[in-house]
Amino acid sequence: MGGLFGTISKQDCVTDLFYGTDYNSHLGTRRGGMAVYDGAVFTRAIHNLENNYFRTKFEPELPQFKGNSGIGVISDTEPQPLLIHSHLGSYAIVTVGRIVNMEALTRRALDRHLHFSETSGSAVSMTEMVAMLINECDTFAAGIENVFLHLKGSCSLLILTDRGIYSARDKLGRTPLILGRREGAFALSSETTSFANVGFTVEKYLGPGEILFVTADGYEQIRKPGERMQICTFLWVYYGYPSSYYENINVEECRYRCGAALARNDSGEVDFVTGVPDSGVAHAIGYSNEKKLPYKRAYVKYTPTWPRSFMPQNQATRELVAKMKLIPNPNIIQGKRMVLCDDSIVRGTQLKDNVRILTEQGAREVHVRPACPTLIFPCEFLNFSTSRSSLDLAGRKAIKELEGREDAHLDEYATPGTDRYHAMIETIGKKLRCTTLKYQKLDDLITAVGLPRERLCTHCWDGTGSF
Ligand code: SF4
Hints:
The chain is α+β, with helices and mostly antiparallel strands. The protein folds into two domains: 3-229, Aminohydrolase, N-terminal nucleophile (Ntn) domain (Glutamine Phosphoribosylpyrophosphate, subunit 1, domain 1, 4-Layer Sandwich); 249-462, Rossmann fold, CATH 3.40.50.2020. It is 31% helix and 25% strand. The chain is built from 16 helices and 25 strands. The strands form seven sheets. A seven-stranded antiparallel β-sheet has the order 3-2-4-1-12-11-13. It has a six-stranded antiparallel β-sheet with strand order 5-6-9-10-14-15, with helices on one face. It has a four-stranded parallel β-sheet with strand order 19-22-23-24, with helices on both faces. Strand 11 (178-182) and strand 12 (185-189) form a beta hairpin. The chain is globular, with a radius of gyration of 23 Å. The model has no long low-confidence stretch (mean pLDDT 94). Iron/sulfur cluster is lined by residues 174, 232-234, 379, 381-382, 384, 457, 459-460.
């Protein structure tokens, strides 16, 4: 997915930028970058985060950075920020999102004899493509509008200029962007979690497609928010940091409501509730509070060497790391019946491992309760699932097993109460080898978030939504 942070201040901003960007680290795994403007020149650094953390990589370089304004990024894709020299002046740019029509946009540019210098793997860099679309216009505002017009997918961005920072939230608001304020300074972030410890408070949640121009003295709205919003529901279920707010709705509290909804739909007897760390824990606490059942840590996360949700790009390594991070506690598990909450089931391989270990440690019953419905449709809008095809999803694998093909009767499979839905859940449950499996209902998830359904992207579960 990726996260952005930018700040502009009457004083040097480097420490704020460094920590503010670092607090977006849970959103991305591949590259981190910062660019600072000191009134004359831009200074930039980019590092690979696949083998180390943002703070460790950037700390030694901090003395080289000086300036009152800067932008940073944690990216799941290409190296950023890019420094651009154009007729609009020199600027630095960072983006979060995904371009689905990259091939068509690349062809359009090459047909005009334009060229690209950055690459992301063997492909054109999304950020360079966005910069190219901006440079086609006479102003930054018109340029960002041009991005919204041509780009299929999603894109939130920050542009650092010699006068201030342009910030734009994705046209349909799939990813968040929030403006923070402090005496003599402003900040922009994907996560409000970035604000507290650097002294900012939320000034404004940017609306879908809203553009602000921000200086140390104030901000100006360059484009009003659009009517339509499709913010990613997965932010509350899984991606978001517990202390963050999107649309003024707190992530941790939302997870409690998800767990409570699961509990209200359950009538079986168990001894305690547990959660798969990290995000499964909040869902489990919500379940346990609602049912007035003890919450216990059947698994604990080994934090001394795994301080954050570090996710290598390679799937096999990722699964090994996920397994190694969690340690079962036999004393809690032996002879007990438990509800095991997790945020979601993607492939199901990790959860299968979790259930197996609990059973091997002597658990009598393991009732699996994911906080969201069965994932049936891969994400087309963010990088959530670029590394997986629909066939990677546990739901689709079950459908393939039942139908001989993975794309048959998807509407029925996505509808609780149908025979096909029950057959799919039974097939997934057998694979997990759990005692019972019961997913969250989509209506309950939407109620737990608290926004009207039409303001949320629910494509993962019901296939709805468009560009
Ligand atoms: S498809 Fe799923 S992951 Fe992608 S934006 Fe929509 S809710 Fe989020």
